Amino acid sequence: MIKVSKNLESIPASLIDRKTDTRRNTCIRDRKYHQKRDFHQRYKQLDIKEALQTIYHKKCAFCEQKIIECRDNNLEECSSTVEHYRPKSKYYWLAFSWDNLLWCCYRCNHNKGNNFEILADEVYYEESFKENIHSYAQQYQEFEKPKMIHPEIESVLEKLSFDDGVIASKDKRVQYTIGMCGLDRDSLNEKRQTIIDDFKESLMDKKLKNESIEILLKTLLDAFKNQNNEFLALRYWILRNYKSLKH
After folding, report:
1. In the chain, where does DSSP find H-type helix?
2. What is the chain's percent helix, strand, coil content, to nearest 5?
3. Helix-then-strand count for the chain, H and E
């Protein structure tokens, strides 16, 4: 997980057009989200997907692996979905809200499902919410104090560890997010461990040749700064802990 910046003033046209507004008003009127194709399609419009792909650099908001468009069931691990941070089944008025939509891989989305526990009072719809329907996430966070980390609002880089490629944390909320999304699943652990092993191998090579590791660290830093790379949180952890990885 790594914090991602989204411009809440640059809202995809499909989220503010007449068709979407009609679906939103219907949900608000009926106080529920309608599980129908014409409702689902409103938050899956091409301009929304393209905007989210760009913001997330084609990576999952939670596990940080690259997402590809595919129909093959064997590739469900990396296929894309538009994820609702706050479940639309409960927060019906946010089904088409820009600050509630994330770019997510199928597996993280499926694992997370409708799980969304909070530590404080629950938000209920108020008519005044319609005025800023696309930018209430920050206020909701402060009021509800959800257990789930919001990747567009908070950074958890300093709270993560990746020993043997396994993502972990001492922070309860980060633990909850890891558990709900299954961020410690085997396929991800193996990919992360490969990155660690490659770095350790390069470290050992430098040591055997009695060469400086400065260039190696700079390469790793550049890889961390490149938003298109997968697993940036892992790369950051390696930078912070490279001395302990020498052995």
Report:
1. 18-30, 37-40, 46-55, 106-112, 137-144, 172-181, 186-208, 214-225, 232-241
2. 55, 5, 40
3. 9, 2
Q: Is the pLDDT of residue 180 over 80?
A: yes
Q: Spell out where 7-120 has E strands.
A: 80-84, 101-105
| Look-up of token digits 């993560």 | 160
End-to-end CA distance of the chain: 27
What's the angle, vertex CA 239, arms to CA 237 and CA 243, rounded to 5?
105
Q: What percent of the chain has pLDDT over 90?
A: 81
Q: How many CA atoms lie within 13 A of 99 on its CB side?
A: 16
Closest by alpha carbon to 63, among 150, 198, 154, 188? 188
- Report the largest interatomic distance among the alpha carbons of the chain, rounded to a whole angstrom: 71
For the stretch 32-55, pLDDT in tens is: 999 999 999 999 999 999 999 999
How far apart CA 104 and CA 1 sit, in angstroms, is: 11
Show the tokens assigned to 4: 């991602």
Measured from the Cβ of residue 149, the count of other Cβ atoms closer than 10 Å reads 24
Question: How open is the CA angle 114-119-122, to the nearest 5 degrees?
Answer: 65
Burial letters for 90-101: b for 16+ Cβ neighbours within 10 Å, e otherwise?
Answer: ebbbbbbbbbbb
What is d(CA 100, CA 97) in angstroms, rounded to the nearest whole number? 5
Model pTM score: 0.91
| Cβ neighbours, 10 Å, residue 59 | 24
